[in-house]
Amino acid sequence: MLEALGKSCEVSPDAIRIREARALATRLEYPGRSIRNTLLILGALTARFGRGAVPLPGGCKLGERKYDLHVHVLESLGARVWEEGDHLCAEARDGRLRGAEIHLALRSTGATENAILAASLACGTTRLWNPHVRPEILDLIAFLREMGARITVRGQESIVIEGVEGLTGARHWVIPDNVEALTWLVGSVITGGDVEIVRFPFEHLEIPLIHLRESGARFFRGDDRMIVRGGTCYPLDLSTGPYPGINSDMQPLLAVYGALAQGETRITDLRFPGRYGYAEELAKMGLRHEVVGDMLRIHGGAPLTGAEVKALDLRAGIALVLAGLTADGTTTIAEAWQIERGYDRFLEKIQALGGKVLADEAS
Hints:
Layout: H1 2-5, E1 7-12, E2 15-20, H2 37-49, E3 51-55, H3 62-65, H4 69-76, E4 79-84, E5 87-92, E6 101-103, H5 109-120, E7 125-129, H6 135-146, E8 150-154, E9 158-162, H7 178-190, E10 194-198, H8 206-214, E11 217-221, E12 225-231, E13 237-239, H9 251-259, E14 263-268, H10 277-283, E15 288-292, E16 295-300, E17 308-310, H11 314-326, E18 332-334, H12 337-340, H13 346-352
Parallel strand pairs: 6-7, 13-14, 17-18
Antiparallel strand pairs: 1-2, 3-5, 4-5, 7-9, 8-9, 10-12, 11-12, 14-16, 15-16
Helix pairs in contact: 2-5, 4-5, 5-6, 7-9, 7-11, 9-11, 10-11
């Protein structure tokens, strides 16, 4: 997407170098799959150029979303936002966004990111109330500060952004992905693996680690790494919530953990109630479950068998991979592109760990 706008991106195994050699387009024409990241590109374009247009994320219409926090952020900063065919467009009324008081009805990671990006180049001061302050947000803020942004974090209460005229280039070391780290941990335990995970973000996963340790996972902390020694899966009883709680993205992984435990696991997603579509796909592999209100109840211990299933989204897809590693027979996952968009060199890593996973370009 950046290259389609006119950026030059050099990607190596452990870095990406982004340059700007020519004037950028303000309308993103992208023939590939559209994802919600286009909303962040829209915020950045509108902040820098006063206007922007991007493909609608996932093809979904605003009317179907009822209330979109990203649109709320841009409109609060003085932009006009509208749909134009399959694109979402925004334009600052006087050519530049203006600082404002923004109140988020939900602690949304994406809306918090967009507000920070857009307000960094807005004229004046923006105060974002009820932000979702989590490690990824603090890492983004650290990066923007290195580029010249002026941002102050006031805990979970608010973030204050003083707009600047422009940002400069910078070098930044991105923090480890905590959901990927948790994926390798859960995968190691459910398969009885013996795995060492380097640069494991312990301080970002305190609550999930407590649940897993109390539910039979055996792991030990080194100086900068985690050593997993398998363990015995016991049932979980948990609810998701804002950081430092259990992220909604983590619950499909923990559902597979519960599927392999003898007894009943109960998961309540307080962030996105009813986000349990992946359970129907796991049911094709033998999962016994039921949804009661906003709670997913998993009757663990039933053997899983390979089946043809579908990755409904990124985390649903990785849950199916983990289940497939423990199932008897072959599991075929359709729409597997969902998985690789959220994991760096996924096939390379899982194959190195001994997983018998093959990619089919048609998927």
